[in-house]
């Protein structure tokens, strides 16, 4: 029985489009170049936000540009994956200044510690709830797209 021709499965999300390749450098150097590229994108977006007097920070503008570039395929994920993975793995280093501030100013912690704790807890809960809502909406949106295309709704 000959059914309709099945389409080949889509490529993995981190595969490179044909005709492109990740930098052929040593992996550590490649990650550094990718991080520098992300920093350059942030810097350019920050300069644009300041120059155009936009009401949003350049970092948010850069994140939006990055999502748009990835979504349209103009920037293959493989071109930034190692650098982004390294940044995520070393994220704790970016919080060291906050820890040093706590150690250097114990009087502030003793005086306003409960207020800081409330702010931290409320902020954490807000981020978790916001992330959950966004993820849920994206899952529903992807499911609707798959249903429209006649694919598996899972």
TrEMBL record:
Q: What is the protein's membrane topology class?
A: Multi-pass membrane protein
| Pfam families cross-referenced by the UniProt entry | LrgA
Segments passing through the bilayer: 60-80, 87-106, 112-135
The alphabetized UniProt keywords are: Cell membrane, Membrane, Transmembrane, Transmembrane helix
Instruction: Tell me where it mainly resides.
Output: membrane
Query: What superkingdom does the record give?
Result: Bacteria
InterPro entries assigned to the protein according to its UniProt record, in alphabetical order: LrgA/CidA
Q: Where in the cell is it found?
A: Cell membrane
Please state what the protein is called: LrgA family protein
Say which species the protein is native to.
Answer: Geothrix limicola
